[in-house]
Amino acid sequence: MTAPRDPEPLFETTHGTLPLVISMPHSGTYLPPELAARIDPAVHDLPDTDWFVPRLYAFHAALGASVLRATHSRYVVDLNRPPDGAPLYPGKRETGVCPIETFDGDALYARGGEPTRAEIEQRLRRYWQPYHDKLRELLDAQVARHGRCLLWDAHSIHSTVPALFEGRLPDLNVGTADGRSCEPATARRIADVLRTQPRFSFVVDGRFKGGFITRHYGDTAARVEAVQLEIAQSAYLSEARAPRFDETLAAPLIALLRTLLGCAAGAPRRAGNNKIQGLG
Asked: Are 233 and 245 in contact (CB under 8 A)?
């Protein structure tokens, strides 16, 4: 029997000219009807979504970056987790490739309704694998064209999640898998940009060092670098159960992201000035 097709595409793709691919695996909000019917109505507002990340990076076209944006909620399948369910941070609490609870520990399913191993395998084939096939295709295309590529894995999270980490996150959390997923010069360019701005706090390889995407695709020998940026949502919105995008609050962050990505990707500079091409 053929599985029913979802009315939403699994992801949206934009092709750019710069050796830069932005991955957005957790900003999707679509729940297939058969899954929405099983998930507790109390979490239908999808509290663990990376809210409005595509709007933060809406400058990608002017910059020349390629973008891969998931449309489905991470509650369907977590695209930034290993398919075998291996932990990213051994000894620390984390949600799985097919989550059964929220970050706060609230159950997604009624007792006994959690996905079986067979269902997890089906979701991996139907949702997880196509995203990663497309991501690999985008990266390979840029390496073939430019000889290199930077993968920027774009995330956001509530600034305080006691079940996952103590206290409040810095505004910007850069992950390079402890320096393994990118060249030292790339990490230095990122840190230099962040050090020269006074508005946002930041850390490199703190609580978030990069998930499966950063660790799996970051391969400097293959000319692919990968960096994850986890943004504390307090940096660009009023944190609430039903958040709203705040253009005024987000504007300084967007300006910084635009500069940061251009510098990280090594975008060429215009002759005669210090502005990065495409950054204005």
From this structure: no
Spatial contact of 180 and 258, defined as CB atoms under 8 Å apart: no
**What is the separation, in whole angstroms, between the first and last Cα of the chain?**
53
Domain boundaries, the chain: 11-264
Assigned CATH for 11-264: 3.40.630.40
**Contact status, residue 150 vs residue 174, Cβ threshold 8 Å:** no
Question: What residues pair up with 262 in beta bridges, in sequence order?
Answer: none
Distance, in Å, from the CA atom of 76 to the CA atom of 97, rounded to the nearest integer, reads: 9
pLDDT in tens, the chain (280 residues): 345 556 679 999 999 999 999 999 999 999 999 999 999 999 999 999 999 999 999 999 999 999 999 999 999 999 999 999 898 988 888 899 999 999 999 999 998 899 999 999 999 999 999 999 999 999 999 999 999 999 999 999 999 998 888 899 999 999 999 999 999 999 999 999 999 999 999 999 999 999 999 999 999 999 999 999 999 999 999 887 778 898 999 999 999 999 999 998 875 433 333 332 222 2
Rounded Cα distance, 261 and 179, in Å:
18
